[in-house]
């Protein structure tokens, strides 16, 4: 699978590959750049096992000039079928080491600058998690929100498989990540625009179309609601929702680049696995 561009180098993006499904794995096997200078941003949810994550990143790193990875929640699960039983921060750090072995950039590395067409622009992979601040209507606390979600039966598997060790809670881990990332972004040169890559959107507006609004609790944090303005964001790349689309918020492009599950993408008219062009902007983008 390639993008729809010509011969110029591109900054491309994809997320939510979920290669545990044979159909999705096949999509990765067929993914190719259009030029030998293309970069690929991978915004999380590759798979649940370290072996599958390694295979995917190694495959893509062998084809693209540079691969940049931001973790999703599925990579952070301590799943019963994974032989790697690390939890929380140690699991994340292990995945970072895997990426470094493969030459894949992570949120722990210096942010690279895309110098190709449409550049220069800083490419910042982020790892922020969520803090339950996207509450359902009528709920004032996390506890109320979780009670409501359990009542509807829409509860994210993170509650059982994503452990925050050594942090006491996932929201505590989130807040620590937000504070450190905010410090790093604030130190970037003020004359350079940015492309921020995070598994979750930085603002709540993409959740407006969720069939199950209570799922928004596991989709980000209000702490980042102004980052697209503060940090000169040209495009905010995310996944997680399995609703691939482009939205514009306060003049900033938000690009959801997920593949999703076969049962989801089989219903769409567009072929699955198309790499989305982030820089230069897609033809027809506002």
What are the salient characteristics of this protein?
286 residues, six-stranded mixed beta sheet, four-stranded mixed beta sheet, alpha/beta, globular, single chain
Largest sheet, strands/sense/barrel: 6 strands, mixed
Topology as H/E string? EHEHEHHEEHHHEHEEEHE
Beta-strand share of residues: 15-25%
Structural class: alpha/beta
How many β-strand stretches?
A: 10
Q: Note the overall shape.
A: globular
Q: Give the low-confidence spans.
A: none
Q: How are strands sequenced across the largest beta sheet?
A: 4-5-6-7-9-8
Question: Quick check: average pLDDT?
Answer: 94
Classify the helix fraction into a percent range: 25-40%
- Rg, alpha carbons: 18 Å
Number of helices: 9
Query: What gap, in angstroms, lies between the N and C termini?
Result: 25 Å
Oligomer: single chain
Describe the 3D structure.
The chain has 286 residues and is of the alpha/beta class. Helix content is 28%, strand content 15%. The chain is built from nine helices and ten strands. The chain has helices at 22-30, 50-61, 73-76, 88-102, 142-152, 158-161, 170-186, 227-230, 262-265, and strands at residues 11-14, 39-42, 66-69, 113-114, 121-125, 194-197, 233-238, 245-249, 252-256, 276-279. It has a six-stranded mixed beta sheet with strand order 4-5-6-7-9-8. The protein has a four-stranded mixed beta sheet with strand order 3-2-1-10, with helices on one face. A hairpin with a 6-residue loop joins β4 and β5 (121-125). The radius of gyration is 18 Å and the shape is globular.
